[in-house]
Amino acid sequence: MRSRRTVPALALGAIATLLPVLTPAVASAAGPAPRTATATGVTPSVDPLARYGRQKPRWSPCDAGGPAEYECATVEVPLDYARPNGRTLDVAVSRTKATSARDRRGVLLLNPGGPGGSGLDMPLWMAPMLSDDVKKRYDLIGFDPRGVGRSAPVSCGLNDDERAWQRPYKAETFRKDVQWARTVAEKCRARNGAVLPHLTTRNTARDMDVIREVLGEKKISYLGYSYGTYLGAVYTQMFPKGADRFVLDSAVDPERIWRGMIRIWAEGAEPAFTRWTAWAAERNATYGLGATPAEVGATYWALVARADREPIVLDGVALSGDDIRLGSRAVFFDVAYAAETVVRLKDAAEGRTPAPARSGTPLAPVPPHSARAADAPADEPAVPADNMDAAFWSVVCADTRAWPHDPERYRRDATRDKARYPLYGDFASSIKPCAFWRDGSEPATRVNNSVAALVLQNEWDSQTPLASGRGLHRALKGSRMVTVLGGQGHGVYGLGSCADATATAYLTTGRLPAADLTCRTPPDHTGRSTPLPLPPLPQRLPIGQDHF
Question: 29: which residues sit within 8 A by CB, 6+ positions away?
Fold first, then answer.
């Protein structure tokens, strides 16, 4: 198996009540204990799920040209845990072993976000971000969730236009957008009909527990970013006895999955914009965007209006007003970068040559996510180009039954939210493929437990805003939360912020802070870049913030 660079985000899980007891893996509303003869009260000979935990993984180098210590294997899991003798899937798993056998505590499972983000190579790219003390104590375990990357990847056969899901509401194009959403749902169902109901966060949590058993561990520790925080929270709800030390970074509010988590992008963008206008006004001598917050805001909206009349060409790309609104939503969470970007846009509009961009053209329409189809070895099938998109919609739509099915509901919400949240409200609330999706195999999981966990959250996070992190903290009553005041961006741990020491201490000692903490990032702190994935909704790479 080949190492692949993860490019997950959206910010971008599931919640509610459970189905009646069908198997030991679908036990109670609180979630089943790890599947062992003692916990389930049955012997392996009569437990149809027991055979999955008895697998012996065949570890081998992930990549002939990669590090020898980076090993991969596959773990077989049932497609439908209610039918453990039926169809199965192979989940790709990777590891790097703890650097000290004497100090080893166990395993640290890793998830980068999504839904749809590949985590198979996380042990490689997370290693430089983790302290030596952490790496002494844990085998680092990566995996591609079911339907993603090397774990039975799904594809809907979507073209580039069908993968472009962030669409502004316009009365004259709404009928076309409804047809787009219907087409995406129908194409996904046509290609993956029997599989789609089972591509859920609950089933991925079950897969994690199979991985735990296969690795011979009584418990797992876990580090999950963005969507990975919801996945981790669902695991604690379903398998509380299997959870050891859980760090949940840049958190999804389980009460908002999933339409609410897209809509919170619009809610969070407005205070970020207000903060930016004040910051830029104080530095008018540097940026020349206005001497007051009102003047700075007026400069921005004048550029949007100008681009609506005639596109503004920036770095060879013609930008409409909608392109600017879409592209700048996440940019405003980094005040200096936002000011530089708006200055460049203003220069282009006024016929001047803009200064070079800090990193690309943030306002340019973001190309659809690629699953790195060309990165597979010759003896393995390529990952479909639309895999991340297909996996994203599969989980987001099947996880919860709260999506409205009436297109007119989306029209009303988009019209109202465009007025309420002018930067992004209509993008967030307009029609999505989930309007035409069939229900997943189970209702969503209601996260409400006292399992210990550490929640990390930047104050200014474009994909999982601060309110979202607080929502997960409320649901996990045994958790503590570290808020990084002034922290900008999606992702905290391993990036050099003031929260790193607390997270490392928890992973190495098991001691949570006595109370919630706040710490302040130095004004000049920018952190290290990170390859977290940015889903078709929430995530964390500089390739376009359109995932968790």
Answer: 17, 18, 446
